[in-house]
């Protein structure tokens, strides 16, 4: 089985459309989405509609949850745009998505960790940057369910990476499909930059004796996505990071 893994679309339907076409061209048997689907300063409604129409099994990310749980008056721009553009039934659909999925035997999929949609799995914050987490920390975050799996799929950090846990699973983060960088001001404050604007996802060969992984980065019309962010009144960092994969201060 060839399983495509997408995560952290953040309302970038242009990136999603390009990725789904590329996934079909690569002959993947199935696709799974690891959450943070709509919240973003581009096309939240169109992104939800495309994902719903595709029938791709999806996990609820923290931003998918926040759109329903938080008071709109207190939301940041990306969540508020999604709240305003989505219908009540679309918000309910996001809220009703599962926290965990098993897309294939021995494969456990989550947004952050198996027990938290807010915790990165394979990274920790050091000097406001994401760095690889120590193996003991990774094992603790995986818990019994994660350690018993053959493969664990995670998103949330937007940072492409994979770790083979000795005596445990192969952990794969495909990176962000639609938002290649961000800055978090809440504690622990940190930033993440992919360094290029490509849409990222992964394809796993689960039939191999040892799981094969392709970490994919594809081109798409990121200028159109950045222009859309400008049209909806996004803060300056949002279109810049879509165009470049870098925050303005890094460029």
TrEMBL record:
Q: Which family does it belong to?
A: Belongs to the metallophosphoesterase superfamily. YfcE family.
A Gene Ontology cellular-component term: cytoplasm
InterPro entries according to UniProt:
Ap4A_hydrolase (IPR050126), Calcineurin-like_PHP_lpxH (IPR024654), Metallo-depent_PP-like (IPR029052), Pesterase_MJ0912 (IPR011152)
Pinpoint the Calcineurin-like phosphoesterase domain residues.
1-183
Question: What Pfam families does UniProt report for this protein, alphabetically?
Answer: Metallophos_2
User: What organism is the protein native to?
Assistant: Neoroseomonas eburnea
Query: Which is one GO molecular function term here?
Result: phosphatase activity
Q: What protein does this entry describe? A: Metallophosphoesterase family protein
UniProt cross-references to CDD domains, sorted A to Z:
MPP_superfamily (cd00838)
